[in-house]
Every structure is written in structure tokens, then in C-alpha cells.
Amino acid sequence: QDNSFEQFIINYCNEKLQQIFIELTLKEEQEEYIREGIEWTHIEYFNNAIICDLIENNQTGILAMLDEECLRPGTVTDDTFLEKLNQVCATHQHFESRMSKCSRFLNDTSLPHSCFRIQHYAGKVMYQVEGFVDKNNDLLYRDLSQAMWKASHSLIKALFPEGNPAKINLKRPPTAGSQFKASVATLMKNLQTKNPNYIRCIKPNDKKAAHVFNEALVCHQIRYLGLLENVRVRRAGYAFRQAYEPCLERYKMLCKQTWPHWRGPARAGVEVLFNELRIPEEEFSFGRSKIFIRNPRTLFKLEDLRKQRLEDLATLIGKIYRGWKCRTRFLLMKRCQIVIASWYRRYA
């Protein structure tokens, strides 16, 4: 119920992860339909980039203002930090405070004067400003780092590389918020170079009890995880897409015209294949470089047909091999019989 600096940076990280989820699933998928020339009705979804900007903007972001308060001379308290937030973020649609110039929150008794509230992607969260400034300051002084670096234990020495005299930096140590922000940026950069697969876990209740389903809790998690937008995009779009070449290579054995080799463009081969299988036209669309299949059951049907065809081909190969083996043995025995008979007639 009481959220401070720690929960604030955790929620900031969650917002960044939600942002990359939106970029890699909702936005990228819709852009792919446009890029491939597929007829598509755009699905609206909320992009939380505005919330991330509220927190991490280099000039007006909450973390930037917190660092500025920690580094500026004079009397610095949590109240002066909140006062600065109220001045800079007063008009932001996702920032709420009783002390800001925005009159819509002046009579909000659910929001104490020493708190501010952020409307996150998953909902509103209220933060107590008490301790923000102290927790943001890195209190590990340089002489302590140097003392730990001189320890004889290799692990302790490795934990404090900034204590190395050869790497002494006279600048003030970075704040906890700036360090966390840099770590999150590195994580996002790493994730954007990957092809992630998402596993969404739903907690049915807070008691870790079996057969207990809390509908309100589950609905909250569904909204928080962005599953509603994802389901809408998936249902309106296509469940499966694949380039023409690998698609033809995988399913070409299902059509006599494309098996064993197709002479011509891969797209033309896929068109011949789907026409031969009599798949309804509403179940697929041809893009510029990919085939798009709307429903998973169509893909399951193709896989079942392929599995059956592979079994038939395996049976055919086995039959041909057994026939070849028997014929080879028969011809060998026939030649042997002729040789034996010729030698017998010679001595008879």
C-alpha cells in the first residue's frame, strides 16, 4: 500500500518492458500487414511511450528532476522535490498531485499532500515522496570503495571495481536512479536485437490456493499485461505467416504438381498448392514476400496432411526398398543357379 522510490523504479522498468512488448507485437505486426500489402483494418491500442517519457525524459522527466535536486546546492528535501514536480509536471495528463497548479486534484482527499500519483499503463499508483532524495543518492563513498578493493578476498575485490586506484574518477558518483535508468536502457537495447517469445502468467488468487479464482484480480492482470489489445490484433489479423520458399519446401509433397520439385517462383508454387488443397480463400492472403494464414485450424490441417503424407512416403520408400532387395536377391540366386547347372551339365 505504501510505495516509495524502490517501487517507483520497479514500475518504471515494467513500463519499459510493456513498451517493448507493444513495439514487438502490436505495432510491428500491424506495420507488417501494411508492408506486405495485406488488406487490414487498423486496431487502436494505447501506447505507453507518454508514461515512459514522463519518467525518463532528460529535461522534464521525474528521474531527471530527482537527480537535479540531489546534485544542486542548498537545502534539498523530499518536499522541495515534490514542489519541483508540481511545477514541471502539473499539466501532464498522467501526473496527479494535490499541490500542483491543476485544480482538478485540489479536493481529492484520496491523495495526501506529501504524495504524487502516476497513471501507469496498468492503473494509478500513489507514491510517498518521503525518502526519494536519500534513496536516490549513492552513499557508497569513494574511500569505502577503495578500502573494499584492497581486500585480499578476490570476490570482495571484484564487487568494488570502482575502488581501483587506476580508475579513480573525481566526478560525483552517479545516482541510483541514473544507474537504474542506464541499466534499463541496456536491457531494452539487448531485447530489441532478439526475437523474444512471451509467456504470460496469470495469478488466479493472492492466497496461492488451488481452485480459487479471483475474477477482479485476473481482469486487472489481463489489462496490465496488454492481453486485450494483443487478442484484438490477433483475432483481426493472421495467426501464422511464413516466407514463400520455406512454406513451399515444407508442404510441397501435398500436391502432385509441386512434388518433388517445383520449377518456377515460390509464390506461384504456393498458389498452386493451396488451390489443389481447396483451402477457402478467406483463410489466407498472399503478401509481397509471405503467405498469411488466418486461423490456426488451417495450419493444423496442413500439418496433419503433411504428417499423413510423410507416413505414406515412408511406406512407399519401404515398399520400393523391399522390392529392390528381393529382386536383387532373386537375380543373384538365378545367376548362381545358372552357374551351378552349367557346371553340373559339364560333368554329367
The residue fraction in helices comes out at 40-55%
Numbering strands along the chain, what is their spatial order in the largest sheet?
Answer: 1-2-3
Instruction: Work out the number of β strands.
Output: 6
Assembly level: single chain
- What is the class of the largest domain in the CATH system? Mainly Alpha
The parts where pLDDT drops under 50 for at least 5 residues are none
Task: Write structural notes for this entry.
With about 350 residues, the chain is mainly alpha-helical. It has three domains: about 1-140 and about 175-235, Methane Monooxygenase Hydroxylase, Chain G, domain 1 (Up-down Bundle), CATH 1.20.58.530; about 140-165, no CATH class; about 240-320, Alpha-Beta Plaits. Helices cover about 55% and strands about 5% of the residues. The protein is built from 13 helices and six strands. It has helices at about 5-35, 50-55, 60-70, 80-90, 130-135, 140-150, 155-160, 175-190, 215-225, 225-235, 245-250, 265-275, 295-345, and strands at about 95, 115-120, 125-130, 240-245, 285, 290-295. Helix 11 packs across helix 12. The N and C termini lie far apart (about 110 Å).
Outline of this structure?
Residues 1-307 form the Myosin motor domain. The chain is mainly alpha-helical.
How would you summarize the topology of this molecule?
Elements: H1 5-35, H2 49-56, H3 62-71, H4 78-88, E1 95-96, E2 115-119, E3 124-128, H5 132-136, H6 142-149, H7 154-159, H8 176-192, H9 215-224, H10 227-236, E4 240-243, H11 244-251, H12 266-277, E5 284-286, E6 290-293, H13 296-347
Antiparallel strand pairs: 1-2, 2-3, 4-6, 5-6
